[in-house]
Write a structure and sequence with these properties.
The chain is mainly beta. Helix content is 12%, strand content 50%. The strands form eight sheets. A four-stranded antiparallel β-sheet has the order 2-3-4-5. It starts with a strand and ends with a strand.
């Protein structure tokens, strides 16, 4: 296995000047040929630019925006167009303005504005909540789901706080207009919307995942539903998979059929756990765990999204393990435990086991107390490559640039096979990315 360490500053001399007053951020955007990194203003954390690296030749280009963006939401790799938004106040409304940036001809333009709430209503709401500083309204969901549509969902604010409704917008960039729909999310009802996620299956299509219920599995299992029949309603849960194109069509037609796409409902005696995994959705299947709170019995259920049929899966894997992942058609569990050895060392136990239990890899590793790992990223690397990273000193979330000591471990060895101190100080180690350069030759790039 061969890992080359690549520093972004060494790929372009201009990056040294760019990073004097800014820092690199991460982007929730997957590209086939590029690694994208946002450039953040170190004081406001707004996006002031973007750098993108061509993985094939390690060429880096940097684009600094004419206007800061609050968030980058999409990258159209075919047309080299980036999309983002910024908050603004205009015409007595607090608004979101969607902006497009063509990275080839360096053309930037505002596409349209979405009025989120009347300014007076929002200022009165902040005053009633005892908030003296102006903050923007929270969004339950805001995502550009493909090159044409943006979906946003937020609280619908009224002069009276007695209402509890969601304002849903479908923004059509081709038509240059948006469609509005109000959904009643009354918490007195058994199934208020609590969580929304988009799962793509292609560049143009996917599913809107909607979780209903006022509490999650951990809360339900910890507190147990009360005997009071009036309170048990608040422990009910459900979830739905709404096909994206049908969701958009129904919003445009002012009819939302949530009940038609609910996969399963459970009472106060059961809980749900979901595999938050895009890879299985691409194979048009979704896995979730249904657990009986009374018996502690857990079942793994496979949902076929082609026809919404369900199948109970037989498995030897511990279903209470939260880190169940799907990769190359197989379900895999990754478990870890940490045991304190002395005042300087911890023992980390990691195991990787496939669904049928016929193939298991495990390793015990001594870590220093200073070594920290990134759980979400680590599970992905262990799943795909059997690798994981640690860094020290521990990240203190003040974004103070410092040099980090990086160690790369493998499930085949109990000791680090790559260890180095970063050449340049980093504002955060969470932007470090492991990229597979050659699958056949086990070659990787560690881009910092």
């Amino acid at each position: 296995m061969n890992i080359d360490v690549v520093y972004i500053q060494d790929l372009s001399s201009e990056m040294h000047n760019v990073l004097k007053n800014n820092q690199l951020g991460s982007l929730p955007i997957e590209c086939k040929n590029f690694l994208l990194r946002s450039v953040l203003n170190r004081s406001t954390y707004k996006s002031v630019g973007i750098c993108f690296i061509d993985i094939s030749n390690l060429q880096l280009k940097t684009y600094l925006f004419k206007k800061e963006l609050d968030k980058i939401i999409y990258f159209d790799e075919i047309n080299n167009t980036l999309y983002g938004y910024y908050w603004n106040i205009a015409d007595d409304y607090v608004k979101i303005t969607v902006r497009s940036i063509n990275l080839l001809n360096r053309d930037e333009k505002d596409i349209l504005e979405i009025p989120i709430v009347e300014l007076k209503l929002w200022e009165n709401h902040l005053k009633q909540e005892g908030i003296s500083n102006f903050i923007v309204p929270p969004l339950l969901f805001f995502e550009m789901v493909n090159f044409r549509y943006i979906i946003t969902i937020h609280d619908k604010f009224y002069a009276s706080n007695s209402n509890n409704k969601w304002q849903i917008y479908v923004i059509d960039l081709f038509e240059n207009k948006f469609y509005s729909y109000i959904y009643d999310n009354d918490p007195k009802k058994p199934f208020p919307i609590s969580y929304i996620r988009y799962f793509p299956i292609s560049n143009a299509d996917g599913f809107i995942f909607i979780k209903f219920g006022q509490i999650d599995a951990e809360e339900k299992e910890m507190y147990r539903p009360p005997e009071n029949s009036k309170m048990t309603r608040h422990f009910w849960e459900a979830f739905a998979f709404y096909p994206l194109n049908k969701f958009i069509e129904d919003i445009k037609n002012q009819k939302l059929f949530l009940d038609a796409y609910i996969v399963e409902r459970v009472s106060e005696n059961f809980s749900f756990r979901f595999l938050d995994d895009i890879e299985s959705i691409k194979d048009l299947c979704f896995y979730y765990i249904k657990k009986s709170i009374k018996t502690n019995l857990s079942r793994l259920i496979k949902l076929e999204l082609k026809n919404y049929t369900k199948e109970i899966m037989q498995t030897s894997i511990n279903l209470d393990n939260k880190f169940l992942r799907y990769n190359n058609g197989l379900l895999t569990t990754i478990s870890l435990s940490i045991e304190e050895i002395n005042d300087k060392q911890n023992l980390l136990r990691i195991s990787k086991e496939f669904l049928n239990g016929n193939n298991t890899k495990s390793v015990n590793i001594l870590l220093s107390k200073e070594e920290q790992f990134m759980p979400d990223i680590m599970y992905k690397y262990i799943l795909k490559h059997g690798l994981f990273l640690t860094f020290s000193p521990r990240f203190d979330y003040r974004d103070i640039p410092k040099h980090y000591k990086i160690k790369v471990y493998s499930l085949d060895s109990s000791s680090a096979f790559l260890e180095f101190t970063t050449k340049y100080p980093l504002s955060s180690p969470f932007t470090i990315t492991l990229v597979e350069k050659s699958r056949t030759k086990d070659k990787f790039l560690l881009i910092i």
